[in-house]
């Protein structure tokens, strides 16, 4: 059995039925504070646009807010969708964050728009093809470097100079994995919603890894893998809460996106609905602490992941916090489980 790897949290700031975006944002910050106190390593925000039921749009602002309210946990983007941004602006924003919160900021970079085509056309600032992404990352390497100068043009990012912000490549495909490997950067694989071909994605990343690339920040392949997680005191209660995530993905994939729905008896979903939801969300750890830890460890053993990033959809924010607590207590040997330690 592998050693216990670090655990992280990915947040989309989902809105629950009957709740407001303001409440979702407050719940997200509360989760970040809790994760900080319980020993999670990173808390990342995923960029989305034109989705009124998700509050994770202005990623850098969310990172700043969460960093202000926490003490040690690393805050980052899972990710910044680089085609939506001018890379120089990304360098300036994350360089500023790194100066405010030294040693606590991560820059995860994705190629997808995180939205529909029309919205992407309103956001677009740089190309999404492999060559454009690689060139932008090379520039970012320079802007975060000691002299703070871009590689494609003698332009300084000023505030980013010398911050050496760690960069990750987000990927759900072989192409993304190949880019991460060729650039010598760590890979965050989106196995939590793209479970197909994970083995091939990891194999391509590891076989293409180039520690001598001009963009390289690490000496060997390093993987963080996404997994859906819901813990409750019993397997039955966790499975009941899991129906919120199942109904969410059914709505997204059928074009009937809704706010997170209250959990229901699993038997209220048809076998076809269970099968459809699990075709996207089958990489999961759902159950009591004992059950979930066994599933998490099996996933680590299967993938050789160096870290896990957990995604938890629950209707009630209190259930998400309970899941965070139960997992921390079961996974970390010296977890704090008193709410008074992070209030």
Description:
With 343 residues, this protein is α/β, with parallel strands linked by helices. It has a domain at 227-304 and 316-333. The chain is 43% helix and 14% strand. It is built from 11 helices and 9 strands. The protein has helices at residues 21-38, 59-68, 87-100, 117-123, 130-144, 174-183, 198-208, 235-254, 271-281, 289-303, 317-331, and strands at residues 7-11, 42-45, 74-81, 105-110, 167-171, 187-189, 223-231, 284-287, 307-311. An 8-stranded parallel beta barrel has the order 1-2-3-4-5-6-7-9, surrounded by 8 helices. Strand 2 (42-45), helix 2 and strand 3 (74-81) form a beta-alpha-beta unit. Helix 1 runs parallel beside helix 11 (317-331) and helix 10 crosses helix 11 (317-331). It is globular and about 60 Å long. The two termini are 35 Å apart.
Short description:
The chain has 343 residues and is an alpha/beta fold. 43% of the residues lie in helices and 14% in strands. Helix 8 (235-254) crosses helix 9.
Helix content: 40-55%
Helix vs. strand class: alpha/beta
Our Rg estimate from Cα atoms comes to 19 Å
Shape: globular
Biggest beta sheet summary: 8 strands, parallel, barrel
Through-space gap between termini: 35 Å
Mean pLDDT: 92
Number of helices: 11
**In percent terms, what proportion of residues is strand?**
5-15%
- The helix/strand order is EHEHEHEHHEHEHEHHEHEH
Topology, number of strands: 9
Please mark out the parts with pLDDT under 50 across 5 or more consecutive residues, or reply none: 337-343
Instruction: Please give the order of strands in the largest beta sheet.
Output: 1-2-3-4-5-6-7-9
